[in-house]
Amino acid sequence: MVSNRCKLAVKEALRNLGLHFIVVDLGEVEIMETLTIGQREELKIALHSSGLELMDDKRAVLIEKIKNAIVEMVHHTNEAVKVNFSDYLSEKLNHDYTYLANLFSEVQGTSIEQFIISHKIERIKELIIYDELSITEIAWQMNYSSVAHLSNQFKKMTGLSPSHFKQLKNKRRSPIEEIGNND
Questions:
Q1: Do 38 and 64 belong together in one domain?
Q2: CB distance 46 to 5 below 8 Å
């Protein structure tokens, strides 16, 4: 679960099965009842119909928690991301970062660092499209050491510089009044 929409879908599935939840959080659910095998299967089917899955494997649950923590930090925090991700993940998940990194790489086939970079680039695209911050402000908010560092990483991942991406965004739509004018 990485969004509020996912949490709502889980709550609805639990209610439909007559189950009472204490907590429904990103990647975790705590219910009052002890599930029977039949209820567990019904819940699994209900979640699957919403595009979600019930995870039993502790490693898969931990991977999901890593992903959720990164998504939450990169996409759902409006203040500047001024924290070391390895310290943040270790503290949040109560595991040594080396263990988390090795598990993540083994299961996902990519490093935590690459996963973070991919999400940071998507967030940067979003911020560029919103056009409320300059590239310098975005670099500061996303904890890049410089605009050049952000630009190099952005170009490596997208093939475009942030300014070229911004120009493409601006060319996507034209005001109705300008359509068909040769000015």
A1: no
A2: no
pLDDT classification of 1: cutoffs 50, 70, 90: very low
| pTM: predicted TM-score of the whole model, two decimal places | 0.69
Residue 155 lies in a domain: yes
For residue 178, give both structure tokens: 């300008």
Number of domains in the chain: 2
In a domain, 178, yes or no: no
Tens of pLDDT, residue by residue over 70-95, are: 988 888 876 656 678 899 999 999 99
Two structure tokens written together for 97: 């970062």
**In a domain? residue 176:** no
Question: In the numeric block, which tokens belong to residue 174?
Answer: 């034209």
DSSP 61-130: HHHHHHHHHHHHHHHS--S---S-HHHHHHHHHTS-HHHHHHHHHHHHSS-HHHHHHHHHHHHHHHHHHH
Q: Which residue range is the domain that position 93 belongs to? A: 58-170
Does residue 72 sit in the same domain as residue 160? yes
Residue whose pair of structure tokens reads 């439909």 in the numeric block: 16
